[in-house]
Design brief:
heterodimer, A: about 350 residues, alpha/beta, Rossmann fold, 2 domains, seven-stranded mixed beta sheet, 10 helices, elongated, disordered N terminus, B: about 350 residues, mainly alpha, ABC transporter involved in vitamin B12 uptake, BtuC
Chain lengths: ~350, ~350
């Protein structure tokens, strides 16, 4: 009896396995046809974030969802990503997506160079690949296009103007970046410092090398304390990480000081209270939801065989992509968002 | 009583390690002060007290683990999980009360610590491996169950904002002010409590015994499981407390923070003379180790150096101190005709 039962179980397991195999073959055959053929002629566009769960990429997924809603009859668009900001996990996700034969993959790479080879394989499999924050991949076989939200020099000048206004065009200032290896941060600062040197000769950069805050909240605060005590005549601070700006704001708040202009790359929800209370004077950033929309929009155009050219409007309702600049694989938007005191006085932050 | 405790702590002769650390610290402070006159001020001292208090609490917990012969790398994860869960709980219940939030974090921390102790005891695992695993499990479970949303100043409970901004006294200057943070007396209290537990209670003495030799300790009737439960629950509770201090101090709740900084804390405790092989370590040494670490971390701007120098200085002192500890140990062993590997 016992034997008979186990034999029965064995047989049914085998039967199940066989039917699964057959079914599996069936889907592969069907899916092997034209791209996006099986699921109601919709293109499947999958966006892969650096890491899921944080505010920044939650906001990006809102843009992807809005795109999915707006073009729901043509595309099935969604966002996924690793639970930790690990380059290897991103590569695994892209490999899975290649196996699923999606139509387009959008990636915000943790490590642009490292993810290059697997993206190239995706393209060899006929998948459209779009990236952002990955100018290193422009001109390679790994991508179809790279969208940058803005021109780095313009972004830097935006900071410079905000800092100059807050400092009244004179006084000592210092800068900090996440790490001295973050290329884009250094480009922003270079543009900002050049602009200030040309237009505001009374503003003095007292330490030419930017300080580092390692994108860490605690270190942002410690650095601010140190700067305030080292430079008693400090009048301005320009930092390219949200941690840097909120660290300085919290130091100024605790010390009851409002004589130092605090200018930072930031998010509305991080900077909002500091801007309102006068401990941050100017913030600047961009909207990751716009990224999500713009990247999906260009991918869809390519899938439909349309070309994307300079001057095109990607129809993103919050602005920044009304007139893109196309240079080969590189596409530039102009989504530079200034955040100023009074803007969020109602306490409602978009992200 | 209080006076009695302090005199007893201070009357103990300093170990050579502690003297050595004090010397390094004094020389370093003189160098920094000569480079940047603004450094030698009460304001800098208060900034240091504020920025280093979280690290100090973690280090005191870490000291007990090292004395017990273990190596815990899960305390930063416990700090975040305890702190974050407690904040979410208080928000969900609408209870904006600091005592409630701290108690929640401390209890959750102690519970997670007891899980560590049970796993280490019953599976006879190396403490490093066990806590390496549980650190990921705790943090991963928190992200899955509670999410990883950050809370900025606008969403941080008001009681925590008040706590983070509270000074026990404030010095006003022309257009600025600075104060000694409320964290400072809390750190002192934790230090005294840790000293009392280690040196004035049975359970504290059994931590030393288990750390020196678990086999002998169990033969003289020490309950190893109870000792381990105490050690890991205590470090868990301190971590939970530190989580709230950390979040309150920054007025920003980021569940991805802190994890990954545990080795710095352990290194500071080791610099302070705690032996990785267990059974040895002092409160004063730990305090000096953490202060030196924080000094390096908070003075590079004064010296005009980039932040990589922090790692360089700290690493150099660590290697030097370890060499010093083991050299002395070997000499002592030789004199006592003890021939062991450590």
């Amino acid at each position: 009896m016992k034997l008979a039962r186990s034999r029965f179980i064995g047989a049914s397991v085998t039967a199940l396995a066989v039917s699964a195999l057959v079914a599996g073959c069936g889907t592969v055959d069907a899916g092997g046809g034209s791209a996006g053929g099986e699921d109601g002629d919709k293109f499947r566009i999958v966006t892969v974030s650096k890491v899921e769960g944080i505010t920044w990429f939650q906001r990006m997924s809102e843009g992807v969802d809005m795109f999915n809603d707006a073009y729901g009859d043509e595309v099935e668009a969604y966002q996924t990503g690793p639970a930790e900001g690990d380059p290897a996990l991103q590569v695994q996700i892209v490999e899975d997506l290649i196996a699923q034969n999606v139509d387009a993959i959008i990636v915000v790479p943790n490590d642009p160079i490292g993810i290059g080879p697997v993206l190239e394989r995706a393209r060899e499999a006929g998948i459209v690949v779009g990236v952002t924050e990955a100018t290193q991949l422009v001109g390679t076989e790994s991508i179809d296009f790279d969208i940058e939200s803005f021109d780095n020099a313009d972004f830097g000048v935006g900071f410079a103007k905000g800092l100059a206004e807050a400092m009244g065009g004179e006084g000592e200032y210092v800068t900090s970046v996440g790490n001295l290896t973050s290329e884009s941060h250094l480009l922003w600062l270079e543009a900002a410092n050049n602009y200030i040197a040309e237009n505001h000769p009374d503003m003095v950069l007292v330490e030419p090398t930017p300080y580092e805050n390692n994108n860490d909240d605690q270190q942002g605060r410690e650095l601010a304390d140190e700067l305030l005590s080292t430079y008693p005549n400090l009048k301005g601070y320009l930092t390219t990480t949200p941690s840097g700006g909120s660290g300085m704001a919290s130091a100024l708040r605790d010390k009851g000081r409002t004589d130092v202009a605090n200018v930072s790359l930031t998010l509305p929800s991080v900077a909002g209270p500091d801007l309102e209370d006068g401990y941050m004077d100017f913030g600047q950033g961009w909207d990751p939801a716009g990224w999500g929309w713009a990247l999906n929009s260009v991918a869809l155009s390519i899938l439909k065989g349309e070309t994307v050219a300079t001057g095109d409007d990607l129809a993103w309702e919050l602005g920044g992509y009304e007139s893109i600049v196309v240079d080969g694989q590189l596409i530039l938007g102009n989504d530079i968002q200034p955040y100023i005191p009074g803007q969020f006085s109602d306490g409602n932050y978009p992200f | 009583m209080m006076r009695n405790v302090t005199t007893r702590v201070l009357n103990r002769k300093m170990t050579p390690m502690e003297k050595f650390l004090l010397a390094i610290m004094a020389i370093y402070i003189v160098i920094v002060a000569s480079q940047s006159p603004k450094f030698f001020s009460l304001e800098t001292a208060f900034d240091l007290a504020r920025n280093g208090s979280g690290a100090m609490i973690l280090a005191l917990g870490c000291l007990i683990v090292l004395i017990s012969g273990g190596l815990d790398v899960s305390f930063t994860a416990i700090a975040i999980v305890g702190g974050y869960s407690s904040v979410l709980l208080s928000r969900a219940l609408g209870v904006d009360n600091l005592l409630f939030i701290v108690a929640g974090a401390v209890i959750i921390g102690a519970l997670l610590g007891s899980i560590n102790a049970v796993i280490i005891h019953f599976f006879q695992l190396s403490t490093l491996i066990a806590t390496l695993g549980t650190a990921s499990v705790f943090h991963g479970a928190m992200v899955i169950l509670l999410g990883s949303k950050t809370f900025t100043r606008a969403d941080v409970p008001q009681s925590m904002l008040d706590f983070g901004a509270f000074s026990i006294f404030t010095i006003k200057e022309e257009n600025s002010q600075y104060g000694l943070t409320i964290f400072f007396p809390i750190v002192i209290a934790v230090g005294v409590l840790t000293w009392f537990l280690l040196y004035r209670t049975m359970i504290g003495r059994s931590v030393f015994a288990v750390g020196s030799d678990p086999e002998s300790a169990s033969r003289i009737g020490i309950n190893i499981l109870r000792t381990r439960l105490f050690v890991y629950m205590y470090v868990g509770a301190l971590s939970g407390l530190m989580g709230i201090i950390y979040f309150s101090g920054l007025a920003y709740i980021n569940p991805a923070a802190l994890v990954g900084t545990e080795l710095g804390v352990i290194a500071a405790v080791v610099i302070g003379g705690a032996k990785l092989t267990g059974g040895e370590g002092t409160i004063l040494g730990t305090v000096l180790g953490v202060v030196l670490w924080q000094l390096f971390q908070n003075t590079l701007v004064h010296l005009g150096l980039s932040s990589s120098f922090n790692d360089l200085f700290f690493g150099a002192v660590l290697v030097f101190m370890l060499g010093f500890i083991y050299l002395r140990q070997r000499q002592a062993n030789k004199r006592a005709l003890v021939f062991t590997s450590n």
